[in-house]
């Protein structure tokens, strides 16, 4: 599941989610959502935990079907 979709489903703001994962601010989450930044390993783990596994590290790396 994409992080953007999870945040909509969970009715969370970027700021609320940033606090849940220990990110500095909402801008960090906005960059993750927009694909302008890939989370570092500690944030990937925090995101997976905060989303109960709905958003996984592989969700940040698009793979095209062949």
Automatic annotation (TrEMBL):
InterPro entries: Cro/C1-type_HTH, Lambda_DNA-bd_dom_sf. SUPFAM superfamilies: lambda repressor-like DNA-binding domains. One of its GO terms (molecular function) is DNA binding. Gene3D superfamilies: lambda repressor-like DNA-binding domains (1.10.260.40). This is XRE family transcriptional regulator. It comes from Novosphingobium pentaromativorans.
